[in-house]
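Exercise 7. Given the components listed, write out the predicted structure of the assembled complex. Treat all entries as one system.
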Amino acid sequence: MSPIPDKAHSLVHVTDLVVDFGETRAVDRLSFTLDRGAALGLVGESGSGKSTVASALLGLHRGTGANVGGEVRVGGIDVQEASGAELRRLRGGKAAMVFQDPLSSLDPYYAVGDQIAEVYRVHTGASRRAARARAVEVLDRVGIADAVRRARSRPHEFSGGMRQRALIAMALACEPELLIADEPTTALDVTVQAQILDLLHVLRAETGMGLLLVTHDVGVAAESVDDVLVMRYGRSVERGPVREVLGAPREAYTRELLGAVPRVDSPREASAPVRGDVVLEAVGLRREFGRGKRAFPAVDGVSLTVRRGETLGIVGESGSGKTTLGRMLVGLLDPSAGEIRHGGDPSPGGVRAGVQMVFQDPVSSLNPRRAVGESIADPLRARGEHDDAVVRARVRALMERVGLDPAYYGRYPHEFSGGQRQRVGIARALAAEPRVIVCDEPVSALDVTTQAQVTALLAELQEEHGLALVFIAHDLAVVRQVSDRVAVMRQGRIVEQGSVDEVYGAPRQAYTKQLLAAVPALDPEAAARRRTARGELAAA
Amino acid sequence: MTGFSPGRTRLLRGMTGFSPGLTGLLHGMTGFLLRRAAGALVTLLAISVIIYAVFYIAPGDVAQITCGPRCSPAQVAQVSEQLRLDDPVYVRYRDFLQGIFAGRDYSTGTGTEHCAAPCLGLSYQSDQQVTQLILAKLPVTGSLALGAMVMWLILGVGTGVLSAWRRGRVTERVLTAVTLAGTATPVFVIGLLLMIVACGQLNWLPFPQYVPFTDDPQQWAWNLLLPWLSLALIEAAKYARLTRASMLETLADDHVRTFRAYGVGERSIIGKHALRGAFAPVIALSANDFGSMFGGAVLSETLFGLPGMGRELVHAVKVVDLPVVVGMVLVTGFFVVLANAVADVLYAVADRRVVLS
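Answer.
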């Protein structure tokens, strides 16, 4: 294989890449190059083909039945033509990949150190002892404290952030020239995401390796790469330096994508305080899980009020107790202590028609074997409406209201897109004519453009019906966009509560400041400033 | 990558590998084992109560059957008196429990015989202590079950691994067909065929005969090889399918994708990462099958002429020999419970995410 001079100095050279899964064309004549030591972000919404491109760089489509055409060269190796042995040397040796979900990406049965050592041995033929030493070395390098001991831990004994660090350590083990990171921070909390992005930043500066970052999150790309390539329907929409593409997009789709991204720093019209009646009140709510010594409070003394027509945002990282709180507000969980009052009356407990819920995952929160119309009709029937004609008419009206074609009454959840399924969930919640809807991460499984449509729908419905919304999310920018007031949760408690302008504009608590500093900025310069701010906060 | 500062190497001192000791793990299991033992006790008591009840309700004159068809009514009455069949059932059950925990004495016409705890009573038929009877039969059935399990694990898991590896190819189809045929054939057909061919025609193996392990281990294994193989052939298909299914499931997991993306070879992925995922279900199923061998080995024991528990149990049921039936069933139950507890412990050792409680 004689290297072609023009292609030799670029680390990745993709020409007219086509990937077909059966009838579906996932990648359509995509070409791009990545120079040694450079960083490129592949940005796009789900189904844009970005992860398929990442897999193609390592020849991972081989043997899966996918049809790959065009030319892919990585580090001088023609991935399409390479033999099995050459391909194995490329994978992990020259180019290493970091995956999205760090829990499922490591073997649950083996010690983390052993897994890294295995990869190192495959590529270097080192002795077991040397490979283990190398594993400890790279684990220490990625910031795992007490690496000698932690190398013996199984993946489940690591936190999400530590697992992602461990995967990055595995990637570093053989000193690759290219790091492919496929949504490396999507499953992580915002503060942990910032740490991982900072780590990638430092490692890149130290080792000089190239980075291909695949992400749906424009902010993550802005933080980490020099160039971005925006993808849609398997094709390249626009490529250029981060600053130009995000600052002055040439293509309409890029503008649409950027416009849909909620921000924590965009101008926002000051909302007048809502003065409606209190429809839902929680006093000293507490909920413990486990018994005896193992008991721990998921929610620990939370008091809040929700007024008619207002949106209360609840933000917090995973494990902060926000979902438990939401379930108690709806009556799906009984509090261990404290009280929930509806419109001033103490609630006897249990689910009440007046408070409904919209769930995070529109796939698993709808019964796959029931037509969506029937799912929406459930709350109506539960309230004693048995006249089929009335139920159907009402369901059709609800479907129409949330932007679904009433003719889809008899269709099943798998026939809908994620955004449409969430609309079904909203229609179901509306069916009971609630005064309050608790939305638990209602848009976190959706693409940004769909996210914007769903939040807009919620706002319209709120206006129309004078609904009170409790909007639970980990995404600070989304919460800022939809809420009137915000409560920041940490370890089962509300650490800061106030109007959006107060909490985002002038946070009082160190934790809130930390959260805000961790949110990726869309502007590379702002990102650099935040990186410095994070450093200072961590040092303080 | 040369960015590592020299100071970091000090971390490496005293490295011995990453497998954590088992002692700590087992230490954490004490509570689990105690609770498990208590649970087993309750289960066994419940079993004994049910069997007592069933035999009490069941039709048939126990004294008449025990004494024999030619006994006079007076003789039958004497037997009934001697076996204390006239006592209320709860008194007999209480005495039975007392025997297990404290031992009891029996009058044997000429004097009294002490039956030490754990005493499961005397056989109605032979006046032999049930404990002795079981101890005599247990090694036979135990040998049969243990050897068969080892064989079916080797055959079944081996076949499963091969067919997961060669999925969709000729090898897999042939293996699937063979193991399925094995399952579909009753033990007396497979066993008989094997016996005719291997023992009768080719003289490769002796006609099975039980030789105690303590007498001659080599002859013990040589004689039992055929029964083991027959039983294993029947069970193997189940294990092959289970292994194959779990492995294929693991092969589709994200972590397998990780190792593929890091250039780890297919052999290592199959043999190390995918096989590990099949451990848990195979262990659980083995424990069940091993336990039920004790009560269910009657067919193979009869076929191969082995004096084991299964044959004894069937005989005891036929002649309504209540103490023997109760004793045998309790011992069988004990092994089922024990095998499942062992499986749980193995499960936790194999998968550290499992918390025993």
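Discussion: Residues 121 and 323 of chain B are 6 Å apart (CA to CA). Chain B touches chain A through 34 residues (CB under 8 Å).
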